[in-house]
Amino acid sequence: MRFFIVDGLRKVAPQFEYVSGDPVTVPCRLIKSATELALMQKATDITVAAMKIGISSLKEGMAPSEFSEIVATAHRKLGAVNDFAMANFAEASAFPHGSTQPQKLKKGDVVLMDCGCLVQGYASDISRTIVFGAEPTARQLEIWNLEKKAQLAGFAAAQLGAPCESVDAAARKVLTDAGFGPGYKLPGLPHRTGHGIGMEGHEWGYIVKGNQLPLQPGMCFSIEPNISIVGEFGVRHEDCVHMTEAGPQWFSQPSVSISQPFV
Q1: What distance in Å separates the CA atoms of residue 113 and residue 71, rounded to the nearest whole number?
Q2: Can you give the pLDDT at residue 91?
Q3: Whole-angstrom Cα distance, residue 222 to residue 250?
Q4: Which CATH class, in words, describes the domain spanning 33-250?
Q5: What is the pLDDT at residue 2?
Q6: Secondary structure class of 135 (helix, strand, coil)
Q7: Which of 172, 176, 214 is nearest to 193 (CA)?
């Protein structure tokens, strides 16, 4: 149940004892079956295709809402339910979940995109960062490459039996060693490195400090160590993985380079 329902019940029926259902629901959804993984892979493949369409449609003067509508339409045409399709340009890309300020795309802007869809109730979630219409500056390229290094460090740490928090720690260490943070301080990584994914875009299996849950086959989660530099720009590479008996496996392959967001 959502919190407001439980909160309302407590107010009108305080004589009852209320307990969390997590011990039942979390194990039911934490480990995905082969069929569930296949649906998530299909959702991922559709989002990759939709984002490619969105990126090819970027043009000077465009607003983020125009990009969102293009990707949402592509999600639907490709047979999925559009879940979300967001983009932020230039300085607004430093805010991990966007800005309400009006934005118009200009050459040389960093473009941070975050998109996902649902296939038979199962979710995808992918973020990409590019530079629009111009060669990246040395600063943009430096931060983009640092973000890639952090994401790959998180992937390398995602080993069976390791605690979820170890993935966050490995990715965050790359950024701290480069002078960002420490911890959640800005400029740096202001949120957890990842979240579980399945029947919801965000569910249990959080990749965050303090979560000592061991990684197990069938667990699915994002690896997305965002770098936020307020007043400049932000960079996020987000791809989801599922744990196999041999270790982590990507649903979507990470960006190749700043000019090649998809393999």
Answers
A1: 10
A2: 97
A3: 9
A4: alpha beta
A5: 86
A6: coil
A7: 172
Altogether, the residues listed in the chain come to a count of 263
pLDDT at 108: 98
Half-sphere exposure of 205 (CA within 13 A, CB side): 31
Residue of 193, 259, 251, 252 lying closest to 225 (CA atoms): 193
Q: Which of 121, 125, 123, 113 is nearest to 222 (CA)?
A: 125
- The whole-number average pLDDT for the span 235-239 is 98
pLDDT, mean over the chain: 97
Could you tell me the residue ranges of all domains in the chain? 33-250
Helix (H, G, I), strand (E, B) or coil at 46: helix
In which band, very low, low, confident or very high, does the pLDDT at 30 lie, cut at 50, 70 and 90?
Answer: very high
| Structure token digits, residue 132 | 């629009």
Is the dihedral angle over the CA atoms 54, 58, 61, 64 positive or is it negative?
positive
pTM score > 0.70 for this model? yes
DSSP characters over 6-26: HHHHHHH-TTS-----HHHHH
Q: What digits encode the pLDDT tens for the residues 137-166?
A: 999 999 999 999 999 999 999 999 999 999
Report the C-alpha gap between 152 and 231 in whole angstroms: 26
